[in-house]
């Protein structure tokens, strides 16, 4: 059986038997060993090179403080990429697989109809106590319905290094802690059902300069996205 066909069947099964039920039942889910060591390493090395070459800039705040960098609230450095840039073949492959997973979820995402997504946001937290305070990705109906984060951190020990993504599911008595380990892919609803924070990441005596790397994409509900664009046009 051709490799592509096996991949298609596996992704469809994962989408229908795991991703969809988890999103509806608890609002989030994650997949480990998504790309495998070899391809995951290629993504990691490209992201490291972006960071080394100074291509990442301080993340900006949205809302009333839109366009303002406040390191005590949001300490990441980011770069937006489409995946078709030179040297980004592994990243493009990753994005293609995530797109397929979401496509296989199809009409089973409740009211949502996904036709497009954002570019990928490559992010790093430089390990000096930087994090991202509790927030909601889409509090005001901008169209984002699913947040997807791919983690790139080898030998990561959250007890020592921090960097946990903590989700506060709406109406639940518990929190969910997701460790940012290498080759882990996380999905969760982008709206007010899932306030979340990135807890501070730290260097240790053994690792003087520790960096947390992640890549995020957002998938848009077609109707909400169109309405948000219409409102923006009317305002401007």
From TrEMBL:
Protein name: hypoxia-inducible factor-proline dioxygenase
Coiled coil: none
Domain of life: Eukaryota
Catalytic activities: L-prolyl-[hypoxia-inducible factor alpha subunit] + 2-oxoglutarate + O2 = trans-4-hydroxy-L-prolyl-[hypoxia-inducible factor alpha subunit] + succinate + CO2
Organism the protein comes from: Elachura formosa (spotted wren-babbler)
Localization terms from the record: Nucleus
GO annotation, cellular component aspect: cytoplasm; nucleus
Keywords (A to Z) from UniProt: Dioxygenase, Iron, Metal-binding, Nucleus, Oxidoreductase, Vitamin C
Names of the cofactor(s): L-ascorbate
InterPro entries: HIF_prolyl_hydroxylases, Oxoglu/Fe-dep_dioxygenase_dom, Pro_4_hyd_alph, Pro_4_hyd_alph_FE2OG_OXY
One GO molecular-function entry: L-ascorbic acid binding
Chief site of localization: nucleus
Enzyme Commission number, as recorded: 1.14.11.29
GO biological process, one term: cellular response to hypoxia
Record PANTHER family: EGL NINE HOMOLOG-RELATED, PROLYL HYDROXYLASE EGLN3
Residues covered by the Fe2OG dioxygenase domain: 116-221
């Amino acid at each position: 059986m051709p490799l592509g066909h096996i991949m298609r069947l596996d992704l469809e099964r994962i989408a229908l038997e795991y991703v969809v039920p988890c999103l509806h039942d608890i609002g989030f889910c994650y997949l480990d060993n998504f790309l495998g060591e070899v391809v995951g390493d290629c993504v990691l090395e490209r992201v490291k090179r972006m960071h080394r070459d100074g291509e990442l800039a301080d993340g900006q705040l949205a809302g009333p403080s839109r366009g303002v960098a406040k390191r005590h609230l949001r300490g990441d450095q980011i770069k937006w990429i489409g995946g078709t840039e030179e040297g980004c073949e592994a990243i493009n492959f990753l994005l293609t697989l995530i797109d397929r997973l979401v496509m296989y979820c199809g009409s089973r995402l409740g009211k949502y109809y996904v036709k497009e997504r954002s570019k990928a946001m490559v992010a790093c937290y430089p390990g000096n106590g930087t994090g991202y305070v509790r927030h909601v990705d889409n509090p005001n109906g901008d169209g984002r319905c699913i947040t997807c984060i791919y983690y790139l951190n080898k030998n990561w020990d959250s007890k020592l290094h921090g960097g946990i993504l903590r989700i506060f599911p709406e109406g639940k008595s518990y929190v969910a802690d997701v460790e940012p380990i290498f080759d882990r892919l996380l999905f969760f609803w982008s709206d007010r059902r899932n306030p979340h924070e990135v807890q501070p990441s730290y260097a240790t005596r053994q690792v003087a300069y520790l960096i947390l790397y992640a890549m995020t994409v957002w998938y848009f509900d077609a109707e909400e996205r169109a309405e948000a664009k219409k409102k923006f046009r009317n305002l401007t």
